[in-house]
From TrEMBL, chain B:
Keywords: ATP synthesis, Cell membrane, CF(0), Hydrogen ion transport, Ion transport, Lipid-binding, Membrane, Transmembrane, Transmembrane helix, Transport. The record marks E62 as: Reversibly protonated during proton transport. NCBIfam families: ATP_synt_c, PRK13468.1. This is ATP synthase subunit c. The keyword Transport applies. It is a multi-pass membrane protein. Belongs to the ATPase C chain family. Key component of the F(0) channel; it plays a direct role in translocation across the membrane. A homomeric c-ring of between 10-14 subunits forms the central stalk rotor element with the F(1) delta and epsilon subunits. F(1)F(0) ATP synthase produces ATP from ADP in the presence of a proton or sodium gradient. F-type ATPases consist of two structural domains, F(1) containing the extramembraneous catalytic core and F(0) containing the membrane proton channel, linked together by a central stalk and a peripheral stalk. During catalysis, ATP synthesis in the catalytic domain of F(1) is coupled via a rotary mechanism of the central stalk subunits to proton translocation. It comes from Salipiger thiooxidans. Residues 12-74 form the V-ATPase proteolipid subunit C-like domain.
Length: 233, 82
């Protein structure tokens, strides 16, 4: 059986080996960028079909961010929206025959989670200043400093493993069923994969929102601080 | 026999990890779905919000089972002792 943890290089670009997930990632990035460029060239007050879909996506993402963070979503829209659309496109890229989702390999997920990790620190420092951000590690008391530092690392790690495990297990199960039962049998499992892929993209984006929201703090509605943090797993 | 003892134990460990690791999330998901059904029966107009939150919660719980799957695959395919 094929090892799901290792990847073979497709071709070499000079001394750099290029693997299939890298190619798929760059194609997804190019397609998303081209679609965004093409739909935002001629924005009108009476939108056509493409612009309506785009506006629907932007307002939905904005509403989700505002719901979770209790803040103006504008500074976070680009990052969270791109993460959501990219992970969704990556998870659903298995719809194209012969393409394996790049998120089924741990390196892609690690890169995405490290982007979230770096963004958390950057937004936190920008919103509170260096001293103010470091002071959040000593909340509610200085005893919690080691735990808060460990939490930063473990939640990034769990973000990696969650996305990797869910997508990889889908691909893996489909390949096992295909080798055992044959053609057309794994189709229900593949349909389940699409649902899992959408839910995991949503969860990845929501968790990124929650982490960044916790780093920048809440301003508009102090009562919302009492809500339970969904990242406590 | 002693040559591939590590591999035999690895396969047993992987099977045990997935089997035992599925118990907890299964019980948890059962409780979550039961609570959601109860809530929808009491307040059918909130079904949309409840089922959306339920799906996200289920995916979170399911992640625990996925973790054990990842551990099992590590033991099978990336075992440092084989």
């Amino acid at each position: 059986m094929e090892n799901p943890l290792s990847i073979e290089p497709l071709f070499h670009l000079g001394p750099v080996p290029v693997t299939a997930p890298v190619v798929v990632t760059w194609v997804i990035m190019a397609v998303l960028a081209a679609l965004a460029w093409a739909t935002t060239r001629r924005l009108t007050l009476r939108p056509g079909k493409a612009q309506t879909v785009l506006e629907l996506m932007v307002t939905t993402i904005d509403a989700q961010i505002a719901d979770t963070m209790r803040r103006d979503p504008a500074p976070f829209r680009a990052l969270i929206g791109t993460i959501f659309l990219f992970v969704l496109a990556a998870n659903w890229s298995s719809l194209i025959p012969g393409v394996e989702p790049p998120t089924a390999h741990v390196e892609t997920d690690a890169a995405l989670a490290l982007i979230v990790f770096a963004a958390t620190i950057a937004y936190g420092i920008r919103a509170r200043g260096m001293g103010g951000y470091l002071a959040t590690f000593a909340e509610p008391s200085w005893v919690m400093i080691p735990l808060n530092v460990i939490e930063q690392i473990t939640r990034t790690f769990s973000l990696i493993v969650r996305l990797f495990g869910n997508v990889m297990s889908g691909v893996f199960v489909v390949s096992i069923v295909l080798s055992l039962a044959g053609l057309l049998v794994p189709i229900p499992l593949m349909a389940l994969d699409l649902l899992t892929g959408a839910v995991q993209a949503y969860i990845f984006a929501v968790l990124a929102t929650v982490f960044i929201g916790a780093a920048v703090g809440e301003t508009r509605d102090p009562a919302a601080n009492d809500r339970k943090d969904p990242s406590d797993d | 026999m002693t040559d591939n003892l590590v591999e035999i134990v690895s396969i047993l460990a992987a099977a045990l990890a997935v089997g035992m690791g599925a118990i907890g999330p299964a019980l948890g998901e059962g409780r979550a779905v039961a609570a959601a059904m109860d809530a929808i029966a009491r307040q059918p107009e909130a079904a949309g919000t409840i089922s959306r939150t339920l799906f996200v919660g289920l995916a979170m719980i399911e992640t625990m089972a996925i973790y054990t799957l990842v551990i099992a695959l590590l033991v099978l395919f990336a075992n440092p002792f084989v």
